[in-house]
Design goal:
This protein is 20% helix and 18% strand. It has 1 helix and 3 strands; from the N terminus they run E-E-E-H.
């Protein structure tokens, strides 16, 4: 198990995501950007530092990242996930 803290799941979180209709937004959880989830392992930091947007019905394997082409959609979905996240905490 590579959890940093099994009693605090947010401490292990690297990404948050939301799916709304055909769109999926993946956001890095920046408070944990420096958290190594594989202590003593290969030391590979796979965390991306930018939002990713996919049109999952047209691209179910998430091969075509669209955030740069749809910044307004990124903003709207980011607002949506933050509304849920901060209300749920």
């Amino acid at each position: 198990h590579t959890a940093v803290d099994v009693h605090n799941p947010v401490a292990n979180l690297k990404y948050r995501w939301v799916i709304h209709h055909e769109w999926k937004l993946i956001l890095p959880y920046t408070p944990n950007a420096d958290v190594e989830l594989n202590p003593g392992g290969q030391g590979v930091d796979w965390m991306k530092d930018h939002a990713e947007l996919y049109q999952v019905l047209a691209d179910p394997h998430e091969k075509g990242e669209l955030a740069a082409k749809h910044p307004e959609r990124v903003r709207a979905l980011k607002w949506e996930i933050n509304q849920w996240w901060y209300v749920s905490e």
